[in-house]
């Protein structure tokens, strides 16, 4: 192999597409988790559960759009300039959606679980 093949920043295979699919699976799992949280919290919290769940679903939807934008930016950067261009908005947004699910789980735990 030549030295030029070792200096390439990426494999021209499908790693950016696999990363996009992984982010999309994560977003889909967040939507399902928030929908389940709405179903089980609606009895305990009423309208607040729906508001909390819809906020989590909205964050996951925004993350879905951002992962597509991130994929296009990274792919074009690798193909054109052979540089990796990426930001931190997508992981931050996914972390926010996970935090919404965690808050819903804690509320469920403290409102419905009565060991005493």
TrEMBL record:
Transmembrane segments: 21-42, 48-69, 90-113
Keywords for this protein: Membrane, Transmembrane, Transmembrane helix
Protein's membrane topology: Multi-pass membrane protein
Protein name in the entry: DUF202 domain-containing protein
InterPro entries: DUF202
Domain (DUF202) ranges: 11-74
Broad class of where this protein is predominantly found: membrane
Pfam families named among the record's database cross-references: DUF202
Subcellular location: Endomembrane system
UniProt superkingdom: Bacteria
Taxonomic lineage from the root: Bacteria, Bacillati, Actinomycetota, Actinomycetes, Micrococcales
The keyword Membrane is assigned to this record: yes
């Amino acid at each position: 192999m030549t030295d030029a093949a070792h200096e390439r920043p990426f494999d021209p295979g499908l790693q950016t597409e696999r990363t996009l699919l992984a982010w999309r699976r994560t977003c889909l799992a967040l939507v399902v988790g928030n929908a389940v949280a709405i179903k089980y919290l609606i009895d305990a919290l009423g309208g607040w559960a729906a508001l909390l769940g819809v906020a989590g679903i909205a964050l996951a939807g925004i993350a879905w759009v951002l992962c597509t934008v991130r994929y296009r930016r990274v792919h074009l950067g690798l193909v054109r300039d052979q540089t990796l261009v990426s930001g931190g908005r997508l992981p931050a947004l996914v972390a926010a959606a996970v935090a919404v699910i965690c808050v819903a789980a804690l509320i469920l735990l403290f409102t419905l679980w009565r060991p005493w």
